[in-house]
């Protein structure tokens, strides 16, 4: 039986030899350039080339207050060029640091707003406050509901009141309508199926705030002879079955013309908290006994 002899890998050997030749050539070139720079007189072009080459290969020594000293022998034009690049790099680094600081300050501001909202909110006995992040909005149901990342495992229950923080205003947003293990569906006040008892503190008139499927609310069953002013505050009533009393609902944005066939009049209410701007919500949940 004949055994076929295996041919040597010529391509691999040639590749290695080519890399060695390239490396040797580059080394010889750098050596020649270095020797030429040492032997040549320190004329302006040579000093310019040395300064530029030194900065390109190792720019770190030129950072800081000693940059001018290191460039003392370089021509003025080269010195200004390198110093401008150094200053540009320092400014870019400063901008990056400022961007990081602004992000941290914004996060601290949000945390401060959250803590202030919690301090200003006094839950009833047996209730605790729970923050939940908004994780989903349906564009087709923008004024109907939103989804949050807390559910039954976190203590949320159906009909739990949901509040939102917009600026320094903590106001009613809606109520929990569905609960999963770690998610919940929040029915917004602007949904047509939502309603809550509310009153106008300046007048002490009570009515029923109802959603109309849009960005505004409608407050019905107000006295027909009453007078209203644009901008008056609307708050939750003590008779509300879901929300704690005196929670901010919104402000009167329009007074509807009286309907002679109705025994009451209505006003339009601008919600104090716009659900579409919320990143997180505050839910009032019952405290479970351990």
**Biggest sheet layout:** 6 strands, antiparallel, barrel
Spans of at least 5 consecutive residues whose pLDDT stays below 50 are none
- Structural class estimated from helices and strands: alpha+beta
CATH topology of the domain at 127-286: Thrombin, subunit H
Write the layout of secondary structure elements.
Blueprint: H1 10-39, H2 44-57, H3 67-70, H4 76-120, E1 127-137, E2 145-148, E3 161-166, E4 169-179, E5 184-188, E6 195-200, E7 205-211, E8 217-223, E9 233-236, E10 248-255, E11 264-271, E12 280-286
Antiparallel strand pairs: 1-2, 1-12, 2-5, 3-4, 3-12, 4-5, 6-7, 6-9, 7-8, 8-11, 9-10, 10-11
Short précis:
It contains four helices and twelve strands; from the N terminus they run ααααββββββββββββ.
Fold and architecture overview:
Strand 6 (195-200) and strand 7 form a beta hairpin. The protein has 4 helices and 12 strands. The radius of gyration is 36 Å and the shape is elongated. It has 290 residues and is of the alpha+beta class. It has a domain at 127-286: Rod shape-determining protein MreC, domain 1 (Thrombin, subunit H). The protein starts with 9 loop residues before the first helix and ends with a strand. It has helices at 10-39, 44-57, 67-70, 76-120, and strands at residues 127-137, 145-148, 161-166, 169-179, 184-188, 195-200, 205-211, 217-223, 233-236, 248-255, 264-271, 280-286.
